[in-house]
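Data availability (excerpt). All sequences and predicted token strings are deposited with the supplementary files. A representative entry, 6661_t:CDS:1, is shown inline so that the format can be inspected without opening the archive.
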Amino acid sequence: MNIEEFRKRGYEAIDRICRYYGELDSVKVLPEVKPGYLKKLLPKHAPEEAEPWEDIQADFESTILPGVTHWQSPNFFAFYPANSSFPAIIADMFSDMINCVGFNWICSPACTELETIVLDWVSRLIGLDDGYLSDGEGGGVIQGTASEAVLVVMLAARQRVIDEYKKRGYTEEDIVTKLIAYGSDQAHSAVEKASMIVNCKFKALPSDDEFCLRGSSVRSMMEKDIEEGLIPFFITATIGTTSSAATDYIDEIACTLEGTSVWLHIDAAYAGAALICPEYQYLLKGVDRSQSFNINMHKWLLTNFDCSCLWVRKRSHLLNALSLTPAFLRNTASDSGLVIDYRDWQIPLGRRFRSLKIWFVLRAFGANGLREHIRKSVKLARRFEEELSKYPNYFAVTTKPAFSLVCFHLKPQKKTNMTSNELTAALYNGINNSRELYVTQTKLGSQTVIRFVVGSPWTAERHVVDAVKKIVDFTEAIIKDVELTIE
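Structure token line:
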């Protein structure tokens, strides 16, 4: 493909992207395919010769798109959102044009320096304290996901506590066998997975009746573990848990950790986006005593996946755990100590020019445009709750709605012999089997619940109102089927 053909095909691709977004409203969210469908449609071997572009495009339409789940659909209410926006798409196009691998400053100075600058911008926008800015000992770095972020900081915390205990006369072998990390029973599974990779013990601490982690829970477990000879070294507190968007009592937890060697990480992957709105920044109480903090801009801030922002209070902790400079990576700029080499702030060596899309998004929307998007999503979630409340015989809201998430379940019905959990599970399956809406389920305590989360910029009030109507229809169909079965 030469430049002129690329120009032609590129224009066609832009037109196709525009048509895709224009048609999202009328396309079912979930695909109607079965596992293994694609293997039957594609050849066993890669082509030996070049194929016509028309054939490649046609196969994309006929084989790939039918198997796609449409995350940008206005009827996508599952998981947490994964926003895209046209400015971010264009930024990714330019990033692909440049195609640099920015592991060292010299590999592409703009790639490194823009990342430092925009991470400072975002830090200020969401209200983090100055200790997380790059002009001090801290700074920000873009990871692929929050899972990568928690692994990176857990490795840093591990090295920090090893170094500290060595000074007390312990051997590294003694230390590593006693390390234990914590998260609440509502923390993302990434925390436990990170502990598996780091090869340390992990405990899920019990949350309270509102699914929040309290300082007292942390204190009692730490005291018990210390008595048993373990070394607590890491804990994750969450702003916006995965199941119910609950927020842990960070200030209480931070107070509990004072005077200890425990690294406090704040996972705000989803709800951290809301901190761009001043009315949510009260949730930051206690964060000034944390060692690291992350949000996923690719969830709720109109920035295409992947783009997880991680800040650390002392970047030296990352360097101590992850810095390794073989001869082939040595260069004058790095040796000068005047530049940041982000390869030392992450697991892999290579990295994309992801800061470009943050820069484009922040400039194209402005902080007020992003705040408008967050507030609109929250308003639509409240509208969903309002519509759902019109059917009190059917539905109960399980927890107090938070941010743009509503958790609800079906109440037991007199004419059925099914439990609330069984009815809720049946409703969940009915909704998703229709493929017209997409939701996820979870367990809160012993209660099965359906999670309904708004986040797509394409979702309007009519989509939320229509979703409730469909959910009611599915509910009544389930109850009718059960009644007929009993009769």
